[in-house]
Amino acid sequence: MDGANNRQHFRLEFPPSERPKLVVGKFELLVLEVSEGGCSVEADGAAASAFGHVGIRVSGTIVFSNGDRHPMEGEVVRMTANSRISIKFIKGLTFAKMMDEDRRIRAKYRK
């Protein structure tokens, strides 16, 4: 089927003002999208140097705009030329948390 989304997990993209941060040590990476299986983050400068290599293990905390904090562990699986890093979770978010966050954002921006 043309245009089919073959992704395994529901993917949540965030409005710029709602983007969570992935805190890893001294680095704060902006989360662009997240799913149960992983996330995409924006990294530049020192963060891109530290995490922009396939196979790097990452442990940290995802901090949502409402203050919720969730530990994560994962591995870098891809980096693009525009400093977007894809991380596959070893330990990440539950489907329930994904749905809670989706409902929270939809309610906040409902017109």
Q: Can you offer a commentary on this structure?
A:
The protein is 20% helix and 42% strand. It has 2 helices and 7 strands; from the N terminus they run ββββαβββα. It has helices at residues 45-51, 95-109; strands at 11-13, 21-24, 27-35, 38-42, 57-63, 69-79, 84-91. It has a 6-stranded antiparallel β-barrel with strand order 2-3-4-7-6-5. Residues 1-5 have low confidence and may be disordered.
Number of helices: 2
What is the CA-atom radius of gyration, in angstroms?
14 Å
Question: End-to-end distance, in Å?
Answer: 34 Å
Low-confidence stretches: 1-5
* Helix/sheet category: alpha+beta
Count of structural domains? 1
The CATH homologous superfamily: predicted glycosyltransferase like domains
Using the coordinates above, name the CATH class. Mainly Beta
- The ordered H/E elements are EEEEHEEEH
> Per DSSP, what share of the residues sits in E-state strands of 2 or more residues?
35-45%
Total strands:
7
CATH overall fold name: Thrombin, subunit H
Q: Do you know the CATH architecture?
A: Beta Barrel
Give the % helix.
10-25%
Overall mean pLDDT: 88
- Shape estimate: globular
